[in-house]
Amino acid sequence: xxxHFSGPRAIADPASDICxxxxxxxxxxxxxxxxxxxxxxASAPTALFSDxxxxxxxxxxxxxxxxxxxxxxxVGEDEYVFDFTFDAPQQVDGTDxxxxxxxxxxxxxxKVAFQVGDEVPTEGxxxxxxxxxxxxxxxxxxxxxxxxxxxxKLSLRPDADNVLAGLNCLSIVLEVDAAxxxxxxxxxVAVVGETLTAGGVRxxxxxxxxxxxxxxxxxxxxxxxxxxxxLEIRDLYNEEDTFNxxxxxxxxxxxxxxxxxxxxxxLDGKTDxxxxxxxAHPLTDLLLADFLVVDLSKPFSEDGxxxxxxxxxxGRPHTTCGGRSxxxxxxxxxxxxxxxxxxxxxxxxxxxxxxxxxxxxxxxxNAPNPTPPDLGARLAxxxxxxxxA
Length: 389
Fold this sequence. Notes:
Layout: H1 8-12, E1 18-25, E2 32-43, E3 53-67, E4 70-75, E5 80-86, E6 90-91, E7 98-99, E8 101-105, E9 111-115, E10 122-124, E11 127-135, H2 142-151, E12 168-177, E13 188-197, E14 205-209, H3 214-219, H4 234-239, H5 247-265, H6 284-288, E15 292-295, H7 307-314, H8 330-340, H9 375-382, H10 385-388
Antiparallel strand pairs: 1-2, 2-12, 3-4, 3-5, 3-13, 5-8, 6-7, 8-9, 10-11, 11-12, 13-14, 13-15
């Protein structure tokens, strides 16, 4: 699942668990960038945000570069940070209803207050905000992904079910006038979402997410990594500053990327991504720079995820806005890229849309399911006992 349950700490602290991050040009208001951060997977429709966690979007200008055979992005120093914090819920007198307010702090210190769950968006200072429970927009053949890892054979199924169907999450939707991003507004931008401890002199980063399925698909399996076979690497990876990876652990991340990406490449019985003389995979540098890449000069596209990266790896101009839209079938796109190369035959996991497709009007996400299923019970019923555990 895109970033749901992406490591021991996320599983132990679901309030800080990032499900997904999305970034795309607004389909209804050109010149605006939409940022979405989903947390608390499989939550109740009445769930509220933790007042102990800061939810953060970071945006930086980037440029694409190709050095020899390696494709990568150069990240600029300018950074635009949007922090969302939440007050403790308050009981409405004489009822069981709880209400919660929050604050968005934008670059320059501007603050915009809002109420959680208000279907009328809060607007001010070039921002449009929604925060509250929503239907989880992600979709995946989770059992096919698990079976592929366990058997070593491509096991995506044409008749698969979306394991997240009917489940909810908590969503923050921010639409920002691109002019507020200064020099970044006319260029490629990198977007990452984070959760951190709120307050204190030195907040602790709990989780981060850029591209989908980097942790849960690309990095999670240990058995192909002969260097770090005993290491659960995802909690370490979550602690990293996306734009400044610590040299202490960079070698461990590279070893896991190189090993697992080579394994994915071999699933179709041929090599589309030959390793270099040092055993490095051509996609390692590109994916280790783990952020969504959005071209703000191009219009909204439903299926641009990984397109800018793929074009860069292929040495050709990109044609879409990139980023990641809510309805983008990223599992198919990712497996196609990893297994078949830049122009490989399209692979499908058999799940082509969420419970309800997202709309093209703010806040884009659908209202929550009032009676969501139990994810644990669903997985236990679908998977053999040793896999469900």
